[in-house]
């Protein structure tokens, strides 16, 4: 079967924006309001000549704190079952959250290859100090990206393919 990569993360971190950037079209709905990715979306994508399936696990994303964790756990379960590698997405604006740590632990426990992406790092060069807190998740080197600008997305996919 084709290599499958799933994007998991809190509502509004930028999963659908990254998904669209990678597949090259606006398939997944991007919105400021958490909860707008209507369904799980699967699309074929290509990186350096390798075809793979990409999943935006967003689904119907809840907006309340207790529901967010539940939603993320469901995303992670789907990713553990279906994907060869998971992109756990966070963002620099909101920083590291307890839900991120919970899901990181789930993925590690399952032994699922995971790459940690820190989105919304919109300026190139040295990442801001807040970036370094993401090392605390224990998933290795976080990759700074800007999904809207496309910065770091190639590095992220290189990391993903290094783990598949
Ligand atoms: P999702 O809920 O995780 O799927 O997040 P979306 O892709 O819908 O994005 C949520 C909001 O964050 C939208 O307003 C996006 O335009 C914005 N966003 C996504 N990626 C970036 C980024 O790299 N930089 C900035 N500044 N905003 C972003
Ligand atoms: Mg979405």
From TrEMBL:
Residues 3-164 form the EngA-type G domain. GTP 1 binds at residues 9-16, 56-60, 119-122. It comes from the Bacteria. GTPase that plays an essential role in the late steps of ribosome biogenesis. Belongs to the TRAFAC class TrmE-Era-EngA-EngB-Septin-like GTPase superfamily. EngA (Der) GTPase family. Associates with the 50S ribosomal subunit. This is GTPase Der. It comes from Congzhengia minquanensis. The gene is der.
């Amino acid at each position: 079967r084709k290599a499958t990569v799933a994007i998991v993360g809190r509502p509004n971190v930028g999963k659908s924006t990254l998904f669209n950037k990678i597949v090259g079209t606006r398939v997944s709905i991007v919105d400021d309001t958490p909860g707008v990715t209507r369904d799980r979306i699967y699309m074929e994508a290509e990186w350096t000549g390798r075809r793979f399936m990409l999943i935006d696990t967003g689904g119907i994303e809840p907006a309340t704190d207790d529901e967010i964790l539940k939603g993320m756990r469901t995303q992670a379960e789907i990713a553990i079952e279906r994907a060869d590698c998971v992109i756990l997405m966070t963002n620099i604006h909101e920083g590291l959250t307890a839900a991120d740590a919970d899901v990181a632990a789930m993925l590690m426990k399952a032994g699922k290859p995971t790459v940690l992406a820190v989105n919304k790092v919109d300026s190139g060069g040295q990442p801001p100090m807040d970036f370094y807190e993401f090392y605390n998740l224990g998933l290795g080197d976080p990759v700074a990206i800007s999904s809207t600008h496309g910065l770091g997305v190639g590095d992220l996919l290189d990391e993903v393919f290094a783990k598949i």
